[in-house]
Amino acid sequence: MTTLDPNIKFSPAALAKVEEIVKQYPEGKHKSALLPVLHVAQAEFDGWLSVPVMDYVAAILKLQPIEVYEVASFYSMFNLKPVAKHLIEICQTSSCWMCGAEDVVRYLESKLHVETGQITADGIFQVKLVECLGSCGTAPMFQVGEKYYESLTFEKIDGILEDLRTQKRSKYVEVGS
Amino acid sequence: MERRILLEHDHVKDIHTLDVYRQHNGYKSVEKALKTMKPDDIVEEVKKSGLRGRGGAGFPTGMKWSFLAKPEGVPRYLVCNADESEPGTFKDRYLMERIPHLLIEGMIVSSFALGVHTSYIYIRGEYFYILEILQKAVKEAYAAGLLGKNILGSGFDHDMYVHPGAGAYICGEETALLESLEGKRGNPRIKPPFPAVAGLWGCPTVVNNVETIAAVVPIVNDGGEAYSKIGIGKSTGTKLISASGHINKPGVYEIEMGITVEDFIYSPDFCGGIRNGKKLKAVVAGGSSVPILPADLIITTAAGQPRLMSYESLGDGGFATGTMLGSGGFIVMDEDTSIVKNLFTFARFYHHESCGQCSPCREGTGWMEKILKKFMAGKATLKDIDLLWDIQSKIEGKTICPLGEAAAWPVASAIRHFRSEFEEYVKHPQSIQDVKHYFRLNNIEQAV
Ligand SMILES: Cc1cc2nc3c(=O)[nH]c(=O)nc-3n(C[C@H](O)[C@H](O)[C@H](O)COP(=O)(O)O)c2cc1C
Ligand code: SF4
Ligand code: FES
What we know:
The complex is a heterodimer. Chain A is an alpha+beta fold. Chain A has helices spanning 12-22, 34-44, 51-60, 65-72, 94-98, 101-112, 154-165, and strands at residues 86-91, 125-130, 142-144, 147-149. Chain B has helices at 18-23, 28-36, 39-49, 61-66, 91-98, 100-114, 128-143, 174-181, 210-222, 224-228, 261-266, 295-299, 311-315, 318-321, 339-353, 359-376, 382-393, 403-427, 435-441, and strands spanning 77-82, 118-123, 159-164, 205-209, 231-232, 235-236, 238-245, 251-256, 280-284, 292-294, 329-334. The longest helix of chain B has 25 residues, at 403-427. The model of chain B has no long low-confidence stretch (mean pLDDT 95).
């Protein structure tokens, strides 16, 4: 029996969301709720899934912790380590590469004074390379939280970083919406 | 000229809302199907239409539907494949973002045809903002009595849910998708049994692509025969093409199947020609998985016929001189593009996305990426070209799902048509531009 961390709890809004999600699947098939609920958990707990958070998710979905770990580690959107407030995910696949994705990476690295993967000293930004995000016709592009930023130019990137600097953490799920 | 059937109203203001969608004939097919047709009539119309799956494989949809097992007392499911992760493909995104109700309408009539009372739209997790658009549209449909109990007084009940993935290309493979929808890792299942017999939670299930399901709407409205008259031969209807790369007008185009590839690339109605007045070098016509073709073979078949945008014409010549329509992800490369480096981005992609269940795929994709890294680093020898060929040839037909083949075909075709370019990387590594930055990003050891 795993002991749960008493400090890790969903907000009432997140709990309501979980309840709504579980209802989408037939009786006894609540395991299907795991991916959407992990998205909610990641949004609730600073953008990543710690072991205590995964244990908590296992408990509320009545699953074994291993069922949660093995799933969380399979999917690339689940972060198993702490991340910056704004994770900038740059597509580097074929069409984006052809249309200048490497220049975007280089520009971001020099502007933010970090290498890909590292978190900026103020904890605000982190650059990550990802594969095709379905935005190939508007390459180069990156995604931050829910939002797609497309047909990027250096000028556009300056504006985006300026905006993000003052914004809250970008969330994949606006809990309770 | 585009032939707009699915995208007829995509530019109408607020077409994503139920009211505006209905003002433009939206949900007419639901009224027609539920009030005047029997489920089997609809399956018959879909068969007549000649519609083939738009997810990549091109399997006849009506036939797939007729395989669905219907044991007494067991629920059946319809699952929409909105995982769209094949590099170069972004058509489903466009359709769902602009006209979410078209997909929902198609899901309702398809479910009625299949006797399905619960359906799911499995959408890739990165498309989260579209999940919200779809959920809003589903809510509107419930409120208008188009979903839920006794739809439009017909006695037909149907519930629909939208379910997000979480970043895994393999979950586009239909059995991996079902595993994922059951809350597990996306490991493809061994077939048989096929989903039509044992799919979601072991129940009979149909999995169809977004565009396939949307196409059922005009088929029900205008009849299968009318639809079958659009297009050419066994490539009936229209196809959404995602065009990207070095072209003047990238974007999603709805074409009537049968237009020439040349027209598609150069006409101002479509791609508008190659950017910056450059020449065409190569095209990946159907998403990253299909064989790449050099300019001459994509414009004209080996037999000297103009190549057409259709399943048959793109496939003409087999893999020796042809390719596939695939998902319709049309990636265009100009004369300055390095085929080897583009291939490296694909190899890295497939290695990253292999689920790891089968050794030929898990190890083979890793080896192919590693050898291509050697080319990038200027460390490859001529023998590595043969080694690469050898590895790709040992994957095909030896794996649980087609991802292994999808990884092998781009490698085989690049070597087949562009061998001299691989040799160039071996002979003149100093000509590789900008290596330092590139090495670091891809963890390639410093070499040249
Ligand atoms: C590795 C892999 C990835 C796939 N990705 C997708 C996808 O993103 N979307 C899709 O509709 N089909 C995808 N498919 C094809 C599906 O397995 C399946 O054939 C399709 O959803 C059936 O729908 P259709 O008959 O309407 O095309 C993929 C197949 C493989 C092997
Ligand atoms: S072929 Fe590759 S992706 Fe498909 S099941 Fe085997 S290891 Fe997984
Ligand atoms: S290649 Fe970058 S979004 Fe598709």
